Amino acid sequence: MYAAAALAILVVMALTLVRALVGPTAFDRLLAVNMFGTKTVLLIAVVGFMTDRPDFLDIAIVYALVNFLSTLAVLRFFERQLHEGSAPPEEE
Amino acid sequence: MDFDLLDILTALFLTVGCFLGISGGVGLYRLPDFFSRQHATGVTDSACSFLILFALILQSGFTLVSVKLCFIFFFLVITSTTATHALAKSALHKGITPILGREDKR
Question: Residue B10: CB partners within 8 Å, gap ≥ 6?
């Protein structure tokens, strides 16, 4: 049961990675990376239950917070670039 | 053959959560512009995560593990909504506009 859930989450993470690699704008990539982080939290929790080691949940909590911080940090970087007049790095 | 009701409920929640997750992933891959992709991400960030976490809470019962899972739930509620809002706001600032209506009916 947990193995199937972990597999499904891995499939979702693969789709997210494809969007992060393809994504036309930087915001698409950022959105995909953020979702990848959320799915990583879920994957850690499910794998912890699968292997009967619920201690993994501590790692999941830390990862959730770090993922949120990284997203906000990159966004702040973009906004600062906008305010200083130079456009954020243009994606092809 | 006796089935535990909690196991059945766990399997049900995990199945629905994984289905919503995969549909959100496909949506993130296939939808046309940034804001609709954000909608697909919202599905997985809210429904999928919460259903899966709730299934795990059902399995662990009244223990410290459940408290940790509730903490993850709480953090995800706060952080995913904030990140979504900040992303949409800065995308609008940069000048990305949503696609309104279909191309042939505009």
Answer: A1, B55, B56, B58, B59
